[in-house]
Amino acid sequence: MFCPQCGQQQVSGVVRFCSRCGFPLDGVIQLLANGGLIPVYRSSDEPKGMSPRRKGVKQGAILFLSGAVIVPILGIIASFSRGNFPQLLAALAAIICFVGGPFRMLYAALFEEGAPKPTMMYGPPPVTPPQFAPPRQNAALPPPPVHTPSSWRRPNTDELANRPSVTENTTRLLDKEDHTNR
User: Fold this and answer.
1) Measured between alpha carbons, how far is 53 from 58 in angstroms, rounded to an integer?
2) Using CA atoms, how far apart are residues 103 and 97, in angstroms rounded to an integer?
3) Domains in the chain: boundaries
4) What is the pLDDT of residues 146-158, one digit of tens each?
């Protein structure tokens, strides 16, 4: 991988900063990993809604577990009453809870939509390569230049301005004293 700012070749793909210019390479690594697309991340303070699939499985489990409480209560009530209605009600509750609950969970697991996948910000959605195809090369950055300028060097700030010497400053102070004494 090459640094997009200075063109320095990096030793490995897990380097966080360019060794020459200090450019942060974390974003570049993510771009290359996602085929040039930037993933959108949710902030931690956003409320996370429950997916329809998870909600359906939860409803089925609650219905099934509530049958463990409702059916015995209706059975006790039906044993003390004299009509067929309470017995029919207990049987209907047992069918709804113990058969309907697992069916609701199965329906939710098979047919309802799961949690949304993270969407990409720019460009079309990535195309998943076939299972046995060779891996695709992501050319997100242009190839490195053929002729790298070897004459480039980091500027030496010492050369930008000449430093005044200590003796020049002292000499100026002495010259001022001579003029004031005359």
Assistant:
1) 9
2) 10
3) 52-111
4) 665 566 666 666 6
